[in-house]
Amino acid sequence: MNLHEIVSQLILNTRGDVPGGWWAFSPASSVGVFLPEITLSATIVLILLVRVFSWGRWIDVFWPVLAGSILALFLASVHAPAVAQRMEFFTGLLVYDSFSIYMRSLLLLAVVLVVVLTKLTGILNHEEAPDIYTLVLGATLGMCLMISANHLLMVFLAVEMASVPSYALVAIMKQRARASEAALKYAVYGAATSGVMLYGISLVAGLVNSAHLPTIARVLAERLPDLPGDEAMILTLAALMIMVGVAFKLAAVPFHFWCPDAFEGATAEVNAFLSVASKTAALGLLIRVAIGIGVVVPPGLTAGQITQTNGPPSLHEHRSAGLSPAIGLAETRGRISPSLDSGLAETGRSADMAPLQGLLGKLVALLAMLTCTLGNLAAYGQSNIKRLLAYSTIAHAGYMMMAIPPMMALAGQHPDLAERAVAGLGVYLAVYLFMNLGAFSIVAFLRNVMHSEQIDDYAGLFRHCPGVVICLSLMLFSLLGIPPLAGFVGKFAVFASLVEGYKATGQGYLLLLFLVGGANTALSLFYYLRVVKVMTLDPDASTRGLVPLPLVSLPGFFIVALTLPTVILFFAWEFLNQYALRAAQQLLG
User: Fold this and answer.
1) Is the predicted pLDDT of residue 349 greater than 50, yes or no?
2) pLDDT at position 344 over 50
């Protein structure tokens, strides 16, 4: 390809083949599918510009932030372009499919709710609100990139874009030494894990001569049967190092140490954002990396060339020439056997990737078992409600990671069951959004009226604000996972995928994972029940006065709005399940 063809292809990829000026673009172009992220970026620029002018001090930036977040949510869900199969955009750095639509919608819905929560709690004053909202939207932008990452360098950049603003958000309470200490620990630990992950990325890129995830899978599919022992050891080490960075974002054991301290030092509003949005993005990234490295998928579509009529060479012509228009301007498939590439393009799963899939599945299974077990056991002795919910968040990360091993075990021979495992995770994330964000919201509202976050100070709350106590109890029991609450649906969907995976493949570690998950669910009953018992049965705390937090108020309406889905989704689970199944149907091609 000469320079003219490269530039023409780049323009076509970015804006599509549409008439009009430079501002015109096709819905299926890179710009068209990137509109939610562009909206977030424009909102950040807007709220920063407001501070430049003297009249900006009279503007409450909450409203433009809320408007920008809602618009991004609308563009990511309702107005999202529909494509028949996965589509790579920005020359293969990112990927767009039904899974991206679903996960970005959950992420941006969580951001909208967190922004509303900050307004209701009044945690931000007029001077610092633009800075904090800039950090929130900046972290959200990085999380959106994590969900769509299709290239190992984009994986690293997205993780850093999501992490760096999060470090500052933990230290939002400048007058609290504990918050500054927690932010410092978070930053130091994050820098260390990022370095380890980057080294793992360099090992993979050096081994296969590419950083594009689908290309990596194709190269490994060709070379894996005859891979020398030393290269196999390097590949295993690289997978472990990359998992370090993803496990850090998930707060998975043994990379969870930052989470309890950060959650105790940060405000409940920040905790709600980190526990829901960060988990959604990290799990989306984990699925992208696991499938990108361990499963060979069909090439898919290329942004801007779906409705092409003339101009640069078409997608079909690129493939016929042995070039991939979606893996980057400098990367070609010349490194891969043409006969193998042709077969993989037709079936997407013809190569035997079982050893690599088994390695990734068992690695994630081990982390999941350790994470949910330690999270539940460590929650027992906590006296601070935010610290208890931090360990609960760690435990739930373990439960949600349990959807990955059956997906990897089933991807080769039973792709339909593998998609159902991903759909189970999608259901879990949807219900987790409401019940966990609801729990932290109630903690924030109670902090404002009680000036305490100690569990002992919750004693006798039922006699002061029974409606709030009932809502918090429903959230906690839903986190436990008992019917008739939505948390049961989420856990059941993930556990069902483990049983299906065991029946279809006979791999015993899936059954062990199911048993560990069930045992941990029983273990978690006691610390959730302890909080409910303190609020309802214990006498009033002597150090606390009246707690005026009625449900007939704006905070009360917000609490009810988050509690209702926790109950309703149990009965509307089939709708949610079908939505999640549609989200997973393009992941494996």
Assistant:
1) no
2) no
Across-strand partners of 302? 88
**Pair 480, 525: CB distance under 8 Å:** yes
User: What is d(CA 89, CA 31) in angstroms, rounded to the nearest whole number?
Assistant: 9
- Token reading at 277: 């949005």
DSSP letters spanning 189-204:
HHHHHHHHHHHHHHHH
Residues 318, 323: Cα–Cα separation, whole Å: 5
Q: How far apart are the first and last CA of the chain?
A: 28
Q: How many residues does the chain have?
A: 589
User: Helix (H, G, I), strand (E, B), or coil: what is residue 88?
Assistant: strand
C-alpha distances in Å from residue 568, one per residue of 8, 12, 93, 109, 576: 51, 45, 39, 18, 11
Residue 402 has pLDDT above 70, yes or no: yes
CA 243 – CA 240 distance, rounded (Å): 5
Q: How far apart are CA 124 and CA 131, in angstroms?
A: 10
Q: Is the pLDDT score of 589 beyond 90?
A: no
What pLDDT does 369 receive? 95
Distance CA 451, CA 445 (A): 10
CA–CA distances in Å: residue 183 to residues 187, 258, 270, 443: 6, 9, 12, 20
pLDDT at 331: 38
Confidence (pTM): 0.90
DSSP 408-469: HHHTTT-HHHHHHHHHHHHHHHHHHHHHHHHHHHHHHHHHHHHS--BGGGGTTGGGT-HHHH
Alpha helices by DSSP H, 321-414: 338-347, 354-378, 385-401, 404-410
- pLDDT top residue among 14 and 323: 14
Q: Are 368 and 356 in contact (CB under 8 A)?
A: no
Residue 19 has pLDDT above 70, yes or no: yes
User: For residue 337, what pLDDT is reported?
Assistant: 40
CA angle 207, 210, 214 (to 5 degrees): 110
Give the phi and the psi of residue 95 in degrees, each rounded to 5.
Answer: -130, 145
Beta strands 301-302 and 94-96: pairing type? unpaired
Query: Looking at 314-318, 448-452, 462-466, which range is the least confident one?
Result: 314-318
Could you tell me the two tokens for 81?
């372009």
Residue 454: strand pairing partners: 384
User: Cα–Cα distance between 587 and 296 in angstroms, integer?
Assistant: 11
SS3 89: strand
Looking at per-residue confidence, does 586 or 161 come out higher? 161
CB-CB contact of 231 with 225 (8 Å): no
* pLDDT higher than 90, residue 286: yes
Contacts of 442 (CB under 8 A, 6+ apart): 468, 471, 472, 475, 559
For the segment 72-103, what is each residue's pLDDT rounded down to a tens digit? 999 999 888 888 888 898 888 999 999 999 99
Does the pLDDT of residue 308 top 50, yes or no? no
DSSP 585: T
Distance (Å, rounded) from C-alpha 367 to C-alpha 350? 29
569-585 mean pLDDT: 90
